[in-house]
# Entry
Amino acid sequence: MTRIIILSDPHLSPTHGFFWENWLLVRDAAARIEAACTIVNGDLCIDGPDSDAEMAFAAEALRALPGTVLPLPGNHDVGDEPPGQDVRQLIDESRLARWDRFIGADRWRHDLDGWTLLGVNAQLFGSGLARETEQTDWLDAALADSRGQRVALVLHKPLFIEHANEADPTIGSMGLAPRRDLMRRLAGADTRLIVSGHLHTRRDRVVEGIRHLWVPSCAFAGSHSYPDDPACGFLTLDLDGDTVTTAAIRPEGLVSHDLAAIKQHGRYKFLREMPPCPPELGSATQLALEQASR
Ligand SMILES: [Fe+2]
Ligand SMILES: [Fe+2]
# Structure
């Protein structure tokens, strides 16, 4: 049996520290679990598309996680694919370059115990950027090379909400055309599992033979549109041959913040627009950040 930890959507910021206490609880709880790797499935930041300081802060936070850490970008890190929820923060080359500079690769392959884990940049699907084509070529090669292995795809956004034929554009999931294209590719391999974040809700469903696992957020609760299990936390994933078991870990003291209440019920549209409220950092974190910024 191989255990993996999956964290998602911590939404860290050196200026807007609403969720820093939650991060500390999650980080310390994750460190007490023996695992082959820790995936951080996007939305590391609040304003990552426009802030070097946030990306540097998130990178430093990730360095405090033990073992192999496998991060992926979300819309709060590199921006949305068009049309997006904010036209001022669409994914582009310079935002990708910021991720590369502070975090590293935006896609990865990790083989363990009869499984091939493929992490991809969800924000590229439908972006039309050159890196979208590069990622598709990389994915095709990785899927072709996964023969004999079970495949799990990990990405920030779910492919769809309820079913694969949903056509209405939504900021909640991938668009129809790139989804169809991706699902055709995945069907050519032994794809068992698709793991996503973004909706801040835990869900575990099999749709047309593939298990779709939504990972809860470390930061704030999911919306009432997805009533499955919106409370904050993180997941462990135990891979044991064909059997995959998950558990939600909710450290004592973790707060499932209400985003609408934090944004003062419509007074602020985006968290980044709110007055600064820096997190309470310990001196070791402060020192590491100062060193990183030199
Ligand atoms: Fe998020
Ligand atoms: Fe997101």
The mean pLDDT is 95. Residues 42-43, 74-76, 156, 198 surround fe (ii) ion (ligand 2) (CB under 6 Å). The helical segments are 20-31, 52-63, 75-78, 93-102, 130-144, 176-187, 259-262, 283-293. DSSP finds eight helices and eleven strands in the chain.
